[in-house]
Amino acid sequence: MTQHPDAQITRMLRAASEGDRQAAAELLPLLYSELRKLAQARMAKTPPGNTLQPTALVHEAYLRLVGTDEPSWSGRAHFFGAAAQAMRDILVEQARRKSRLKHGGNRRRLDLDAAEPAVEPPAEDILALNEGLRELEQADPRRGRIVMLRYFAGLSSEETAAALGISLRTVEREWRSSKAFLRGFLSNPEG
Question: How far is the C-alpha of 187 from the C-alpha of 183, rounded, in Å?
C-alpha cells in the first residue's frame, strides 16, 4: 500500500523532530519545490539590489530548521510556519547587515545613464515590516501567526484556518484587519 505524500511528509517531520537525521535529510528533496516557491515569493517582495538568491534562502532556512536542537513540527503547516519564520529572520538579518553604514547605509547605487525619476512608491522595507509585525504579534499573537502563515509561509486562507484550528471566516477577517494594521504602521511607523 502506497502512503499518501502528505501522510509520508507528516511521518518524516515527526521522525525528524524526534532526532532522526535520516528523515531530516530525506525531507529536503520532498519539500524543496514548495520551499523554493515560498522563497521566490518572499524574494519578489524584497527591495531591488538584494543579493540573496531563492536557492540560498531555501538552504539557509532548511539548515536552521533541521539544525535546531529540538525541532518539534506537528505537521506540514507547522513546518511551513517554521520555514516562514526562518526565512523572515534571514531576510531581516540581511536587511540589517546591508543597512549598516559599513555596507553603504541606505544609499543605493545609481546608473546615471539609465536614471529616471521614480514613478512608483519605494519598495517595501523589510525592516519596517518586521517591526510592524512584531507590534502586531505583541498586540494579538493569533493575528501575528495568521500573517506569518499567509504572507511568509504562503498558505491559503483554508490552510491557515486548518493549521490554527479556527474558522475560515475568522482567518479572512483577521487577515484583512492585520493587513490594514500593517499598512497603517508602514505609512506612519512613528505614530
Answer: 6
41 is written with which cell numbers? 515569493
State the cell numbers at 37: 516557491
Residue 48 sits at the vertex; the CA angle it makes with 47 and 52, to the nearest 5 degrees, is 85
**What's the maximum distance between 2 C-alpha atoms anywhere in the chain?**
64
Q: What is the pLDDT of residues 132-179, one digit of tens each?
A: 999 999 999 999 989 888 887 778 899 888 888 899 999 999 999 999
pLDDT score recorded for residue 112: 41
Asked whether the beta carbons of 168 and 158 are under 8 A apart, the reply is: yes
Helix (H), strand (E), coil (C) string for the chain: CCCCHHHHHHHHHHHHHCCCHHHHHHHHHHHHHHHHHHHHHHHHCCCCCCCCCHHHHHHHHHHHHHHCCCCCCCCHHHHHHHHHHHHHHHHHHHHHHHHCHHHCCCCCCCCCCCCCCCCCCCCCCHHHHHHHHHHHHHHCHHHHHHHHHHHHCCCCHHHHHHHHCCCHHHHHHHHHHHHHHHHHHHHCCCC
Q: Residue 48 in contact with residue 42, Cβ under 8 Å?
A: no
Q: How far is CA 112 from CA 108, 109, 115, 118, 145, in A?
A: 12, 9, 5, 13, 43
